[in-house]
Amino acid sequence: MIRDSSVKTDTRLERFKRTRILVRRYGIHAAGLLAVAANLGIASPARAADYFIFDGHNDLPWQYYGRHGNRLAELDIADDLDDLEPPLHTDLPRLREGRVGAQFWSVYVPIQQYGGAAGDASRVMTQMDVVRRLVARYPDDLSLALTAADVRAAVSGGRIASLMGIEGGHAIEDSLGTLRSLYAAGARYMTLTHGKGLRWADSATDTARHDGLTDFGVTVVREMNRLGMLVDLSHVTAATMHDALDASSAPVIFSHSSARAVTDHPRNVPDDVLERLPENGGVVMVTFVPGYVSQDKRDWDRARRGEQARLEAVHPFDEEAREAALEAWMEAHPNPGATLPQVADHIDHIRDVAGIAHIGIGGDFDGIGEVVEGLEDVSTYPALMEELARRGYSDADIAAIAGDNVLRVMEEAERVAAEEQAARPAADPPQTDDDDDEDDDDE
């Protein structure tokens, strides 16, 4: 239940109300951010003028679905919601405190089986409707953005540019027409897979069946280029990453992934892929998922799952015994978690391999059940930027990582789309075996 806002003291919510007035007056630019920083009590307001956060992945729309069946009135993000149970990572006061100027809202729907299911496209459209209704509900704070120019206009006007990213190509149900329709409805990136593989692309967390992309998968990538939809390679296998880089004429993104050389998780990006980003122009948006950030945490998660599986075999019909034994195991093997400096280590590594121009931020807030110490919610991005400053990153570097790099990628994708639309029409559906049968009948 949301607490009674009438009993709040003059803390984050009151600062947010004053901040809203300031951003209306100044916009999110240098003078405005100095005023906002002073209002929020930020210790080094000069640095506040140097960047805004353009985050690649936030699952707030799915929180509306899971908690309240997409009823927006049940969860007022103009309130300070940091004490909900289970915790919510996102609300407007904390977005302002975190200097978020643009956000890709994930329009996620689960995939339960290889290939996805009928109705996935409709379910994604329902989540896109959530984002549009959120923007309409909070017009002083959110602004729908479909282009890089829209992002710049929103940020300049003191609103948070709100974009939609599809998490998983199961959303298109193997249809180029559906892909185009989702783009027309406002989707501006699509993660090629999620947790299960598709008939045209391999997922990093499922059995690989195609060694990357099929011919149809290549067509999907090229059609995304023609549309101007960003190709998101989080969640896919390394082979799929390479195939997509081979096929794409526009920069790609990894909306919420980190460096595999730092944490050996299949959701992270290997060095041989990072080495290709300078040529492609793409960006890895470093994520805050603890098991992707810390190798110790990754190893602990795997050990815990192994122990859980062992206990299920030992006590197949005794849930109480399993729970007690697992609790004892966890007391003997404390969760190491992950820390903010470890996130910065991933940024350091990607800088060293690919360069500053190929780093962004993709927190995955409200899509994770456990958070990184020091990066507990959307208000904490400035702490990461301060850590980078302590490590010697320049103001220009920080601005690039925080948001400028992904904005550049959007602009380049739009330029490529204009060229490709002038050069070729929308792709036809692939020919099927049924088509061949019909041709035989005609003869």
Report on this model:
The protein is built from 19 helices and 9 strands. It has helices spanning 12-26, 30-40, 45-48, 60-68, 92-97, 120-137, 148-156, 176-184, 215-227, 238-247, 271-274, 277-280, 290-293, 295-314, 319-332, 340-353, 381-390, 395-423, 433-442, and strands at 53-58, 100-106, 142-144, 160-167, 187-191, 230-232, 253-254, 283-286, 359-361. The protein is globular, with a radius of gyration of 22 Å. It starts with 11 loop residues before the first helix and ends with a helix. It is an alpha/beta fold and 443 residues long. The model is unreliable at 1-9, 28-32 and 42-46 (pLDDT under 50). The protein has 3 domains: 11-45, no CATH class; 50-293 and 337-442, Alpha-Beta Barrel (TIM Barrel); 295-336. Strands 1, 2, 3, 4, 5 and 6 form a 6-stranded parallel sheet that branches.
What does this entry show, briefly?
With 443 residues, this protein is an alpha/beta fold.
Using brief descriptors, characterize the structure shown.
six-stranded parallel sheet, disordered N terminus, 443 residues, globular, TIM Barrel, three-stranded parallel sheet, 9% strand, 3 domains, alpha/beta
Any idea of the CATH class of the largest domain? Answer: Alpha Beta
Whole-angstrom Rg: 22 Å
Structural class: alpha/beta
| Total number of domains | 3
Shape: globular
* Cα distance spanning the termini: 68 Å
What would CATH call the architecture of the largest domain? Alpha-Beta Barrel
Strand content: 5-15%
Low-confidence stretches: 1-9, 28-32, 42-46
Residue-averaged pLDDT, rounded? Answer: 91
